[in-house]
Amino acid sequence: MKAVVFDVGRVIVQWQLRHLFAKLITDPAELDWFLAHVVTEQWHFQHDAGRLLADMVPERKSLFPRYADHIDAYATRFVETVPGRVEGTAELIERLAARDVPLFAITNFGSEFWQQFLPTEPVLQHMRDIVVSGDERVAKPDPRIFRIAQKRFGYAPQEMLFIDDNSANIEAAAALGWHVLHFTDAGARALEEVLAARGLI
């Protein structure tokens, strides 16, 4: 194993749409309804997969005019859905970087939001390359994004460890021959054990 490939959201940084919209909707029941019907993760995934906000936002506002301002906030305040880092992961990245282990990332992230977010997280500067689904217009778990990453990173699948919180993404990478680690509630502790066992830290 020669390189380590990270997911970003819920592995390196926290991510929840609720973090933003709890500031805008104070009633818990209304907030739950809004996140289940208006700005949902399923709808947001369209931007991850390459659809432009200029198409998504007006369309959604026409369906839910009552929440037009909230849908605008989704487009302009997205970085507020990332409240901070996942405990421990950034420290492991720093340790890997100190040993000159090649580090990369594959993230489901809308292209426009990625431009807003990237400057806010300095630990990502350790990544030699990052494949962003919105730029490629293909998102995990589609096997195509892993093939794009393999070509860009320059390593065979069996030479890379891929870390992701989503089991479907893990299964897709494993089916292509990648080493994988499902990032669960054990989080950075379990990751540290795997990296140590592989002699990477």
Automatic annotation (TrEMBL):
Presence of keyword Lyase: no
Pfam families reported in the protein's UniProt record: Hydrolase (PF00702)
InterPro entries per record: HAD-like_sf, HAD-SF_hydro_IA, HAD_sf
Domain of life: Bacteria
Record flagged with keyword Nucleotide-binding: no
UniProtKB keywords: Hydrolase
GO molecular function: hydrolase activity
CDD domains for this protein: HAD_sEH-N_like (cd02603)
NCBIfam families, alphabetized: HAD-SF-IA-v1, HAD-SF-IA-v3
PANTHER family, sorted: ALPHA-D-GLUCOSE 1-PHOSPHATE PHOSPHATASE, FLAVIN MONONUCLEOTIDE HYDROLASE 1, CHLOROPLATIC
Protein name: HAD-IA family hydrolase
Source species: Parerythrobacter jejuensis
